[in-house]
Amino acid sequence: MENRSQWGTRAGFIFAAVGSAIGLGNIWRFPATAYESGGGAFFIPYLIALLTAGIPILIMEFTMGHKYRGSAPLTYRKMSKGSEFIGWWAVLVAFVISTYYSVIIAWAISYSIFSFNLNWGADTETFLFADYLNLTVDAGQTGSFVPGVLIPLIIVWAVVLGILFKGVKKGIEIANRIFIPALVIIFLIIVIRAITLPGAIDGLEAFFAPDFSKIGDPDVWVAAYGQIFFSLSIAFAIMITYSSYLPKKTDLTNNAFIVGFGNSSFELLAGIGVFGVLGFMANQQGVAVDEVVSGGVGLAFVVFPAIINEFPALNELFGFLFFASLVLAGLSSLMSITETYVAGLVDKFNISRSKAVLFGGGTAAVISLLFATQGGLSFLDAADYFINQFGVAFVGLVEVVVIAWFLRKLGDFKEHANEISDIKLGWWWTLSLSVITPLVLGYTMYGLFKQNLLKLFETDSGNYGNYSDTFILFGGWFVAAGALVIGVLLALTKWKSSEVAEEEEKKTGEG
């Protein structure tokens, strides 16, 4: 009899996996990336990236978790003792992301409340940075706590840790069964409203109009693979952890296709909603759509409030629905991110789930308070850039290369997945993971290191975000490198798990 927690139903797992994949980046990263990378033409490299990297890695991680029945560190440990650090590295990357991701959800909670009276006023940029975030200190300084961020941040962690305390079936599964349908319904309402606005058609034409000349640009292909990579929650321990809770008989490849295409469908929906609204804004200002396009935090917390101000009717309701969708997308992702290190602690140190949630989640919550200070935005900006670029992407590259080239596990995984899945894996899966993904990720990492590392000691203005060398060194590079170093140290600590101890004894006896 297996003691490991399990999903109550297959649908519960799919809701949770899709909930993890659908995050803030789907709403504010994908539309701008697609527009800047050739509009409708971008869907060609995007679809190829989904089929040659996104879904193949999803299948691989689903198979790893399912076959070895463990968190990322335990899964890697069972594959090869020397590869355990990759699992911890991925978990530490997830840990760092959870500390600042929670803060952005807190902003969205605040803004959903601000929507009722349009509290952000006419100058939405000044409101965000000066009035709400109270950004009055230089990069690297903390200043004092900002109550408007701190209070909703505490609420975010209370909700997420409360759900995780309940466990996999009664906590994560039930929460996602509520959050994900609610998110889709809310966003459908947003899209229907957006496409009926004056000028919405111009926005949609700008979004979908294909610029085929960009398909020959390597940067567009890198952007496509990058978008797939970051939006599918692959390479930072989540999908390995979630699939370890699947029952022995389950359709792994089918699940991966459903999650992959479910995530991409929501991205397309987000693109339609965002560009419908941007078209309206361009129409109101009498300018071209390309003059109002933006992404990231600026799109959500500066541009959208400005657009909501111009709405002909029901602008308060639209504002609330938009920021509520950010809250739901953020919470479902934060749950999955936090679960990676909760599961890792339970497996490694043989402690109860409650203690792992309290220690792991509690530590992340305390660190997240840094981002609720007056200087929190600069710390958040640097940590986000470096941990995503040199954490997630780099872990992904190492993961694929180690598994495909060094451990040569793809054959075993293919056999395991094909035994229990309807869609059989063939040459395309092996070729994607052993050749295409390593080449694309390798090229991406080379470009990023060249762009950032070589600039570090040139001038103060040559760094990411024009931050100083000192701040980038400590706020960026040290954060990304720290995840790797602590991951290696955790891999070197002794396992308290009875499962691993029995395995070690068995190997010693056989020796």
UniProtKB/TrEMBL annotation:
Entry keyword set: Membrane, Transmembrane, Transmembrane helix, Transport
CDD domains: SLC6sbd_u1
Topology class, membrane: Multi-pass membrane protein
SUPFAM superfamilies cross-referenced by the UniProt entry: SNF-like
Pfam families according to UniProt: SNF
Presence of the UniProt keyword Transmembrane in the record: yes
Membrane-crossing residue ranges in chain numbering: 12-31, 43-64, 85-109, 145-166, 178-201, 221-245, 257-280, 292-311, 318-336, 356-373, 385-407, 427-449, 470-492
Protein known as: NSS family neurotransmitter:Na+ symporter
Keyword Transmembrane helix set for record: yes
Places the protein is found: Membrane
InterPro entries: Na/ntran_symport, SNS_sf
